[in-house]
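This follows on from our talk about sequence and fold. Please put the record directly below this note.
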Amino acid sequence: MAHLTKEIEEFTSRIQELISEHFKERFPNLTPSTISVKFGRKYAKIIRESSTGARGTTQKSVYGFVDAHTGDIYKAATWRAPAKHVRGSIFDADGGMHACGPYGIKYLI
């Protein structure tokens, strides 16, 4: 199966909507974090960028990973690698949003 570029980009736009709604409800005076995606050979890294307010600096962190061939969603273990266990799939009935929170991919329950 080829890279799921379109599906992963749609998934990241749903994450952006989730974060924007969270900030709108809880922190209306702050600017929401922005989500971007960087595609690698095996995984798509979902990156969250937040402004810290101090002199206009920004902070980047890994929101999570998506397997570019299967659509499996992983929590980030480090900047460069996903955690071992799958948290969901972008092909689940809710598009994988059950695995997402406003700050990253959820822990296993």
In short: The helical segments are 5-26. Strands lie at 34-39, 43-51, 58-67, 72-76, 82-89.
